[in-house]
Design brief:
Elements: E1 4-7, E2 10-14, E3 25-28, H1 31-39, H2 46-63, H3 69-84, H4 91-105, H5 110-140, E4 148-151, H6 166-175, E5 181-185, H7 192-204, E6 208-211, H8 216-222, E7 227-230, E8 234-236, E9 241-244, H9 247-256, E10 261-264, E11 270-271, H10 288-291, E12 292-293, E13 296-297, E14 310-313, E15 320-323, E16 326-328, H11 332-352
Parallel strand pairs: 4-5, 4-7, 5-6, 7-10, 8-11, 10-15
Antiparallel strand pairs: 1-2, 2-3, 8-9, 9-14, 12-13, 15-16
Helix pairs in contact: 1-2, 2-3, 2-4, 2-5, 3-4, 4-5, 5-6
């Protein structure tokens, strides 16, 4: 099952708001639908958002009727801006838009731009599964037979095109025959751990235990947790890692208990233009995500609500960052620059080879 793909002339993706009770796929050729679905978390997970953003730009290009190249590109820039405005924190959104816009801006004619934009979006989707499997291969070397692993939010196949980042590491270790067990934080307020990670691990046959977020410290203290593995939405140049709200707390708890804290993410999630985590814009989402659970009110009417969607684990709490180009350890600055440079070179080579 691919979370998102080009299918029969349209973009096809699973509605993640309906999981785990219903597996419903949406098919569209309208970039506006995709932009709305990114905003409403129908499409979610940083790598998946990046690929979706690329497809959305390609759909916008296919829709534009302008035949003069300057006017066509001006309209496509507007489309790109609409897509970028959907969510502020996950850098993959902007990366995905810009990857397709880069090939569009150098296109010779309108028809060629449209073909190139779609080809680049398809290339990004194809790359994603390979990237995740390489992350899994590198990360599985950190996982020993018999490990208990704690994870937060969902960084599995549903957060990518397929396979996953943090769950890719866990899948790879499981596929190698290692006997592992996963503690899954439920991840309030939207329960991505309970709804999505538990769903994925159950389907994969990987032993797991679901816990509430406020049990993590107790589980670390009273049971043997060997490592924490999480995904990321944006990694700053110094290694500060922004991820789903609650990651900061988990990173502190892991440090206190002497447990390695690993981040698994593609190089597209590394933002070298951002020096540190405090510089990353944190998305504030709707109040009803906190005051309701699956549409049922659980808080009094009129209460004030804070709902930041993300926080960040300071680099001093991060033991290693696992990428498709290898494991980066502290101090992170040079290593992160190196893997990003390698990734950018690989993209250029892929474009040249067609």
């Amino acid at each position: 099952m691919k979370t998102i793909e080009w299918f029969d002339g349209k973009v096809r993706y699973i509605d993640q708001t309906k999981l785990p009770l219903e597996e419903i796929f949406i098919e569209t050729n309208d970039y506006r639908v995709m932009a709305a679905d990114i905003k409403q978390l129908v499409i979610r997970g940083a790598p998946c958002i990046g690929v979706a953003a690329g497809f959305a730009v390609a759909l916008g290009a296919l829709e534009i009727q302008e035949r003069e190249r300057p006017r066509f590109l001006a309209r496509l820039e507007e489309v790109a801006g609409e897509i970028k405005s959907t969510r502020p924190t996950a850098v993959n959104l902007f990366w995905g838009v810009e990857r397709v816009m880069e090939v569009a801006r150098v296109g010779v004619g309108v028809d060629q731009i449209k073909r190139s934009a779609l080809a680049e979006a398809k290339r990004m989707a194809a790359e994603d599964e390979d990237i995740c499997r390489r992350i899994g291969a590198h990360g599985s070397e950190l996982i020993q037979d018999g490990f208990n692993i704690l994870t937060h939010c969902n960084a599995g196949a549903l957060a990518c095109v397929d396979y996953g980042t943090a769950l890719g590491v866990i899948r790879a270790a499981h596929e190698q025959g290692k006997k592992i067990h996963v503690f899954v934080d439920e991840t309030r307020p939207l329960l991505q751990g309970a709804r999505l990670t538990a769903f994925e691990l159950t389907k994969a046959g990987i032993p797991m235990t679901l816990i509430t977020d406020n049990m993590a410290g107790h589980i670390m203290r009273t049971r043997k947790v060997n490592c924490v593995v999480v995904g990321a939405d944006r990694i700053a140049a110094n290694g500060d890692t922004t991820n789903k709200i609650g990651t900061y707390s988990v990173s502190i708890l892991a440090k206190e208990h002497g447990i390695p804290f690993y981040v698994a993410a593609p190089t597209s999630t590394i933002d070298l233009k951002i020096a540190k985590g405090d510089d990353i814009v944190i998305e504030e989402r709707k109040e009803d995500e906190v005051t309701t659970i699956q549409g049922k009110r659980v808080a009094p009417f009129g209460v004030k609500v804070a709902n930041p969607a993300f926080d960040f684990a300071p680099s001093k709490y991060v033991s290693a960052i696992i990428t498709e180009h290898g494991v980066v350890r502290p101090p992170f600055e040079q290593g992160l620059r190196s893997v990003v440079s390698t990734a950018n070179q690989a993209i250029r080579q892929a474009r040249q080879s067609g």
